[in-house]
Amino acid sequence: MPLQPVLVNAAWREALSPVGSFQAFNPSTGTRLKDIYPISSFAEVEEALEAGHAAANALFKTLPEAIAAFLENFAGSIESHADELVEIAHLETALPKEPRLKSTELPRTTNQLRQAAQAARGRSWCRATIDTKANIRSKYGPLGGPVVVFGPNNFPFAFNSAAGGDFAAAIAAGNPVLAKANPGHPGTTKMFAELAFESVKKAGLPRGIFQLIYHLRPEDGLRLVSHHLVGATSFTGSRPAGLRLKEAAEKAGKLIYLEMSSVNPIFILPGALKERADSIASDLFNSCMMGAGQFCTKPGLVVLVRDEHGEEFLRIVRKLFEQPPTGFLLGQNVLDGIESAIKTMKNAGAQIVTGGEKLEGAGFRYANTLLRVSGDIFLQNPAALQQEAFGTVTLAVFAEDFDQMTKVAVALEGNLTASIYSHSADLDENLYTRLEPILRRKVGRLLNDKMPTGVAVSPAMVHGGPFPASGHPGFTAVGIPASLLRFAALQSYDNVRPNRLPPALQDKNPTGHMWRLIDGEWTQRDI
């Protein structure tokens, strides 16, 4: 069977001198799917980068309205091909067609694209700043090179390298995208790429604005992110892979934005346990098992005080975890990762309450697993006991008292989220007041009385956090227009003649409603 084509330098074509090939798996059966995809040579990667760099130069004068039209047309095309996309994504990931893929993730994907289009057309995202007295003007603008997007395995639509949030943000900011497909769902990514390329042509944009390769050798991935033509890289995936890419990119002075690892701790205060242990246990289990536990915001750590209420809570949670798993893992690598994480936690002193074993039968499955450890042991080896296990796995940490609970919070690494469950009145208010400032510095998003699994596509959303949850705490991967700023450069114009200024910085407001900071005042007026 021939290899599937790549999209490089404005054309679908056979891969040039591929260095290998691969096939995706059906996670529900564990069997290979029929299509074969190339592992691209670095020569092909360099050709794509050169084409992307040329497209970046052509895009510099492209009106934001044209970019917005592309994003909107692409969103509509996705909706027109929803059934086909859902079918192939289900085959490659075993994620449920309904409601997960068709009614939840696909609308989120098109919503992101349309929000990005709105941001591009509105232009306020670029934060135009004008000092009329000094005649200095600045704004955020494109990076001048292609953005490389490494997509994750767990969101085949919403985080797809050829259609997801990073793709939308990079394009809306005026950058070309070189998409590197996740090998877990290459067929889904290829279909997105076909639709995107048709929309590029309809919009009349430079055709090199979007390109697709499926896979690389690890050493070529390191060369890619550090290449002099790359504008920036976004990566969502494992910490070991992310750290290798980060080192290579930063050594070369290249931007890279990472989402790597998070256990998303849940702190349950004593008053909340006494008041509503059953409902919190149900919230926890439902959050842990969503998507078979394969969410980067899954709660992998629960911290509570060891007393009769804490022990009763664990008994309730154990009964819930003893239910049969409801989904399949995305691949053998996920299964191996769970086994490795649980082994590390056990070696550090954690005990299995229930689960802890691979399940027999077809496909990739692992038992729902609940572990426990004392606060003393956790504080002796916090790094080993903060293992991200990408499945329905969570660790309960039993602190001796609230003082030790706060010490556990201090020992946490950077995370995407943290949640505090407290009494509905004010019985836990003093404890909350002590705990909240510690957690606030540890996470990008702090929640109260709510599990973290849902990540709303809202301008106020922060999907990021301190290292190692991400590579930089100042940015978010979700939330337009803020997510665009990862893929933009701050550009200043000092004493430049009015006719030579970009439209956003000229005296006349280019849209009539764009927000600009003029002499210290945010306004929509002309100068």
Tell me what the structure shows:
The strands form 6 sheets. A 7-stranded mixed β-sheet has the order 16-17-18-15-14-19-20, with helices on both faces. Helix 8 (239-251) links the parallel strand 12 (232-236) and strand 13. It contains 14 helices and 23 strands. It folds into 3 domains: 44-117 and 137-260 and 476-485, Aldehyde Dehydrogenase, Chain A, domain 1 (3-Layer(aba) Sandwich), CATH 3.40.605; 266-448, Aldehyde Dehydrogenase, Chain A, domain 2; 493-523, no CATH class. It is globular, with a radius of gyration of 24 Å. It is 37% helix and 18% strand. It is α/β, with parallel strands linked by helices. The protein starts with 5 loop residues before the first strand and ends with a strand. The longest helix has 26 residues, at 97-122. Helix 4 (97-122) packs parallel to helix 5 (165-172).
Features:
alpha/beta; about 525 residues; single chain; 3 domains; 5-stranded mixed β-sheet; 23 strands; about 35% helix
CATH top level class name of the largest domain = Alpha Beta
Average pLDDT number = 96
The share of residues in helices is 25-40%
Which fold name fills CATH's third level, the topology of the largest domain?
Aldehyde Dehydrogenase, Chain A, domain 1
Per DSSP, the total helix count is 14
Describe the structure concisely:
The protein has 527 residues and is α/β, with parallel strands linked by helices. Helices cover 37% and strands 18% of the residues.
